[in-house]
Amino acid sequence: MPYKKTGDNSKLPAVLQSINRADIAFSIYDGDIKDGSFDTPERLSHIRRVMFPTINSLGQTQVALEHQGKAGEKFVGNTRFTHSGVMFVGINMPGSNNNVVLNEQERKAKSVRTPAQCDAANAEYLERDAANVEWLAESFALARTQNAMGLVLTVQADPGFDLPETPEFDSPRLIFPGTPN
What b/e sequence results for 91-128 when a residue is b if at least 16 CB atoms lie within 10 Å of its CB, and e otherwise? Predict the structure, then answer.
């Protein structure tokens, strides 16, 4: 939201006004600001510079955020802060499929990217996913040491927990920090 392709741009002011009128401590925007068929590394670099120019959040009342990366650099989108005893953690997991292009058939069906752009997206994914797993494990450990009442995880992409295993798609085995391989 907003999806320019579906005409949502005109709805954004009303959404923002509604949030601003609400009696809330803060709001979290989890992303999805562009179509996933663009050049992934270029767009992620742009988003890192624009959406994370400082260590603080954006908005009228800024919140100090802890980041995995430095302002404008890789992994800056991995953030965390604590509010009222609850740790809020954001990881950069872009949609639709965490920027992974599984095969040539999917590339042709779902994207206008070139094979070289898809290869670059997959390489970027591998590096970012390893950083995400590290950030997530570190965040849970930190929440435990701080005796946090809970941890809220914010991601944008579909993690694929419900993907069926078929001959066309063998879903990857999900491994979480602290669980046996």
Answer: bbbbeebbbbbeeeeebeeebebeeebbebbeebbeeb
Q: Between the CA of residue 157 and those of 20, 22, 30, 33, 161, what are the distances in Å?
A: 26, 26, 9, 12, 11
Q: What's the pLDDT at 85?
A: 96
Least confident of 1-5, 70-74, 147-151, 153-157: 1-5
Does the pTM exceed 0.85? no
> pLDDT digits over 70-102, tens only?
888 899 999 999 999 999 999 988 866 777 776
What type of residue sits at position 119? D
Q: Are 83 and 25 in contact (CB under 8 A)?
A: yes
- Cα–Cα distance measured from residue 31 to residue 158, given in angstroms and rounded to the nearest whole number: 12
Looking up tokens 């206008």 gives: 112
User: Residue 164 phi/psi, 5° resolution?
Assistant: -75, 150
